[in-house]
């Protein structure tokens, strides 16, 4: 028999011997690979529109023995399963065409035994001849009857047994390897044990026929042999596991032809349905344009998912009954056979790594490498080096060395091996962290709001009132440098006590007038700035690179004493002074403020991104739901297909859509929760930024008055404050806008359905405020500062952009309730 060598599923035809061979219609061509079906004039035969068919196959067996079938069709597949490839031999054809005869044969007649007993025999013969390998064989025998699975290697005596077992069996997949959960996989150590299992299965099959009152051969049977192969000689940690499926499909039949009724009709319906699913799968597999097959449509196709083409050596025997009365079924079988020939197959070995052996190999390799290293050390005179894990004492010593290295009392840390390198790095990391915490603690003691990420702690501080009473967000101003903000005044309760300041300034002036005659007075230039008035003191803070030193200096009011003694005659404007302040005493606080603002900006960006993602997710959910509903309607239109328990059977595509819908809903819920959390975080961060602003302003007020107040009267300070009034007003407006939006958003969270309405309200409100601002003083007085800065007003704009995408979230959230069924 010639062998077809293309990488496709191999298909052969076997004819059932008959005295009524329809030789004027069917002929087997000389090449023994073609079956021709000729024109039929009769109206009730085949399709009288098409005249002739020629089906080209991998081989045609006409009146041949069981022996020849096995040698030509099965032997090669079996040998390859022993090499680690999966294999499938499958019989397909109309009822009575000889599938069972081919696959099982007469179990009581040795010469007429079929493919399965011959496979078992050949398998064990081969195993015995392959001395370098050890094989383990496990066998399972599965029956699929009316789309229900039954384990034929379990003793089942009653109908209840069968029904219970059917519920326990289900199909699973593990890295593309299909198996039936709950099915017995029995070990067979010899040909005899394996044959016993076959016969046991056959017996159970006939008991089942009796108990369930089912008709003979109205089920699909899959006899599975799992072959595990390990090399005896090599210490290789890889081994192969292959699966050989020997499949006897139930025979198709035409209901009209057999006039079936009752149980028989029901059986025939299931058989035809599952075979048509099989045909569909084969059709999809053979179509290069389709990259998806609905294997889950039936138990049969699902169980054969890894057995039709693909990585598996698959052979199909199409059994035909070449009599005139069966010509229609014959053509249908040959058509299916032709399609099957197009299914691509690229068999690959199923190699698995044995973890126990792999560890053994690694240990051996490790030992060998250690020996190599020891030899190398001896050759280069590096004796006495240990590669064992470091002891407590050694770690302590390394830590000591690292500390001395950092403080400069040690030039090098002594290192001999990689473990020591790791220990040194770990120690340095720990020292770094400890120092970081130390510095952080000092900052916290001073400013409270320094931790960018620890929201819980910040909450705690807020609740316990440790934010030093900074609560109001009024009285700030616009930004000048894009990094910080311009000057303004703190809220009333935070302002400097003017009376006390004036008193203090008067005292200072008196002290100044008592300066000794020889003492040099500052020049006007020096007076114009606190930095210029005294080269030491505050100036030192700016030039210092030591944070800690700077920090402690800022804390000490006594540092300013010298400057206070020499108030400049013409104080700089608050704007200029504020820039100086941010470079000197306000340096740390301003840094924290900028950092907090950056965090806030990044959170706002995250917020906007997440909202966009949620909207997209909602669109996907809507689309998937529409598709699923369409599929459902199609199914309902075509008539529902129920299983034995009256449950609806849905096809693969609908199942996938429902699963996808559930998955999308899950993601949607998750994202939505994140979105809510992020929102609260943004509000919280906004509060932190506001608090920082006020703290900075408060400190600035104190500093400014200490440096420049001449103590004449209270009106001086009022003038300074009012000189920035326009800017402040504008900032107050910004903060109010943000507060309004924040309040709106809180309301939105409590009632999501109102989202579109409230969004529209917010938009309108923003428009009004913009227009009002344009026509009022602040815009005219300080347009450059206010438009280009990056503080209150700009962030309010950004906030507005972010919130525009929210209505879609609202719609999704509203629908979410109905989606969760
Ligand atoms: N090649 C053959 N040589 C001898 N007898 C055969 C051959 N093919 C089929 N038969 C006989 O035909 C009858 C029906 O065959 P078989 O039961 O194998 O058909 P089937 O395709 O399995 O039918 P069903 O789908 O109903 O199970 C049996 O008696 C069988 O012995």
From TrEMBL:
Q: Which domain of life is it from?
A: Eukaryota
Q: Which organism is it from?
A: Rotaria socialis
Q: Where in the cell is it found?
A: Cytoplasm, Cytoskeleton
Q: Where is the composition biased (Basic and acidic residues)?
A: 550-565
- Which residues participate in ATP binding? 93-100
Organism lineage reads as: Eukaryota, Metazoa, Spiralia, Gnathifera, Rotifera
Q: Which GO terms describe its cellular component?
A: microtubule
Q: Where is this region: Disordered?
A: 455-493, 505-574
| Family designation | Belongs to the TRAFAC class myosin-kinesin ATPase superfamily. Kinesin family.
Where is this chain compositionally biased, Polar residues type?
Answer: 458-474, 512-523
Q: What is this protein called?
A: Kinesin-like protein
Please classify the protein's predominant subcellular localization into one broad category: cytoplasm
């Amino acid at each position: 028999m010639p062998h077809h060598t293309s990488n496709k599923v191999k298909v052969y035809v076997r004819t059932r011997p008959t005295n009524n061979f329809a030789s004027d219609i069917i002929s087997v061509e000389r090449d023994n690979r073609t079956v021709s079906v000729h024109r039929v004039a009769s109206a009730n035969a085949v399709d009288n529109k098409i005249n002739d068919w020629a089906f080209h196959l991998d081989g045609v067996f006409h009146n041949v023995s069981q022996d020849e079938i096995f040698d030509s069709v099965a032997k090669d597949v079996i040998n390859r399963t022993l090499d680690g490839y999966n294999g499938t031999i499958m019989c397909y054809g109309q009822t009575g065409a000889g599938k069972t005869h081919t696959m099982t044969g007469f179990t009581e007649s040795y010469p007429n035994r079929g493919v399965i007993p011959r496979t078992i025999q050949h398998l064990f013969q081969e195993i015995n001849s392959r001395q370098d390998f050890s094989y383990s064989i496990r066998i399972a025998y599965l029956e699929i009857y009316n789309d229900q699975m039954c384990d034929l290697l379990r003793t089942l005596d009653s109908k209840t047994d069968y029904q219970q077992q059917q519920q326990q069996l289900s199909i699973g997949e593990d890295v593309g390897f299909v198996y039936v959960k709950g099915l017995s996989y029995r070990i067979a150590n010899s040909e005899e044990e394996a044959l016993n299992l076959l016969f046991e299965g056959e017996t159970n099959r006939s008991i089942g026929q009796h108990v369930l009152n089912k008709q003979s051969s109205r089920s699909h049977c899959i006899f599975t042999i799992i072959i595990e192969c390990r090399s005896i000689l090599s210490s290789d940690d890889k081994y192969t596991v292959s699966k050989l499926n020997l499949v006897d499909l139930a025979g198709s039949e035409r209901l009209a032809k057999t006039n079936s009724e009752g149980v028989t009709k029901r059986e025939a319906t299931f058989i035809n349905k599952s075979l048509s699913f099989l045909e569909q799968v084969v059709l999809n597999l053979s179509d290069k344009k389709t990259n998806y097959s609905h294997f889950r449509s039936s138990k049969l196709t699902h169980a054969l998912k890894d057995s039709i083409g693909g990585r598996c050596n698959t052979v199909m025997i199409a059994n035909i009954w070449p009599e005139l009365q069966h010509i229609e079924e014959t053509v249908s079988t040959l058509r299916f056979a032709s399609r099957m020939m197009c299914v691509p197959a690229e068999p690959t070995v199923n190699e698995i790594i044995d973890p126990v052996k792999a560890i053994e190999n690694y240990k051996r390799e490790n030992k060998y490498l250690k020996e190599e290293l020891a030899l190398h050390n001896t050759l280069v005179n590096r004796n006495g080096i240990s590669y064992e894990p470091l002891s407590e004492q050694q770690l302590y010593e390394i830590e000591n060395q690292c500390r001395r290295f950092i403080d400069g009392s040690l030039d090098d840390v002594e290192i001999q091996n990689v473990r020591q390198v790791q220990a040194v790095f770990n120690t340095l990391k720990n020292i770094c962290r400890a120092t970081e915490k130390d510095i952080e603690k000092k900052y916290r003691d001073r400013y409270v709001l320094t931790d960018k990420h620890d929201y819980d702690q910040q909450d705690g501080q807020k609740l316990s009132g440790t934010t030093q009473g900074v609560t109001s967000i009024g009285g700030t101003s616009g930004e000048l440098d894009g990094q910080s903000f311009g000057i303004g005044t703190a809220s009333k309760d935070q302002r400097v006590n003017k009376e006390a300041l004036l008193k203090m300034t008067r005292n200072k002036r008196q002290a100044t007038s008592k300066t000794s005659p020889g003492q040099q007075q500052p020049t006007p230039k020096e007076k114009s700035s606190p930095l210029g008035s005294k080269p030491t003191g505050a100036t030192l803070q700016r030039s210092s690179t030591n944070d800690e030193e700077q920090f402690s200096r800022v804390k000490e009011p006594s540092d300013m004493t010298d400057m206070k003694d020499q108030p400049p005659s013409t104080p700089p404007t608050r704007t200029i002074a504020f820039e100086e302040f941010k470079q000197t005493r306000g340096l740390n606080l301003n840094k924290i403020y900028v950092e907090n603002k950056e965090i806030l900006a990044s959170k706002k960006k995250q917020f906007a991104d997440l909202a966009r993602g949620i909207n997209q997710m909602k669109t996907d959910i809507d689309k998937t739901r529409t598709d699923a509903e369409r599929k459902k309607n199609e199914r309902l239109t075509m008539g529902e297909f129920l299983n034995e328990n009256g449950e609806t059977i849905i096809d693969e595509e609908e199942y996938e859509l429902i699963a996808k819908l559930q998955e999308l809903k899950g993601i949607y819920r998750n994202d939505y929760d994140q979105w809510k959390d992020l929102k609260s975080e943004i509000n919280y961060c906004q509060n932190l930024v506001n608090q920082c602003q006020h703290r900075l302003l408060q400190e600035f007020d104190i500093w400014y008055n200490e440096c420049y107040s001449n103590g004449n009267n209270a009106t001086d300070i009022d003038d300074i404050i009012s000189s920035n009034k326009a800017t402040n007003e504008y900032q107050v407006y910004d903060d109010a806008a943000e507060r309004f939006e924040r309040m709106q958003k809180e309301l939105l969270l409590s009632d999501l359905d109102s989202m579109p309405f409230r969004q529209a309200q917010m938009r309108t409100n923003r428009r009004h405020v913009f227009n009002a601002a344009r026509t009022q003083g602040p815009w005219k007085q300080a347009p450059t500062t206010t438009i280009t800065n990056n503080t209150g007003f700009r962030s309010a704009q950004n906030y507005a952009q972010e919130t525009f995408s929210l209505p879609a979230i609202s719609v999704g959230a509203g629908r979410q309730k109905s989606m969760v069924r």
